[in-house]
Design a protein that fits this description.
about 0% strand; mainly alpha; about 120 residues; 8 helices
Length: about 120
């Protein structure tokens, strides 16, 4: 679940598609998806998977000289698809009552599953 922190940062500062330019390491991507699902953020997880399937192959063959993830999407003729995913992720993130749908899910999860969060010996 901790991996979802970096996605929250990306959704706040950049976008879902841009996230993979900064945090596209396969293990982190896998942990982020699992964390979203564990937190019950299934729609956001589905959007994340679609963005992963779009971005990882494009970024795998790019270098810094290729520019930003947006530039790479533009050259591949996929800018519109990237914008659709970014808009969908932004709409899901905007469902937060306060500032972060992900952090709100962390709090909800901790309340529902304290045994998964806190050391049983502390109780």
């Amino acid at each position: 679940m901790a991996a979802t922190h970096w996605l929250d940062i990306s959704l706040t500062l950049d976008s879902m598609t841009w996230h993979f330019g900064n945090f596209g390491e396969p293990g982190l991507v896998m942990a982020t998806e699992a964390g979203l699902r564990e937190l019950g953020l299934h729609e956001l997880a589905a959007c994340f998977v679609e963005a992963r399937e779009l971005m990882i192959p494009l970024l795998a063959h790019s270098t810094e000289a290729d520019g930003s993830p947006y530039d790479i999407l533009q050259r591949a003729g996929l800018r519109e698809r990237g914008e659709e995913l970014d808009n969908r992720a932004e709409a899901l993130a905007d469902l937060a009552q306060d500032e972060s749908v992900i952090y709100e899910a962390w709090v909800r999860y901790a309340r529902q599953h304290p045994e998964h969060v806190f050391d049983a010996q502390l109780g």
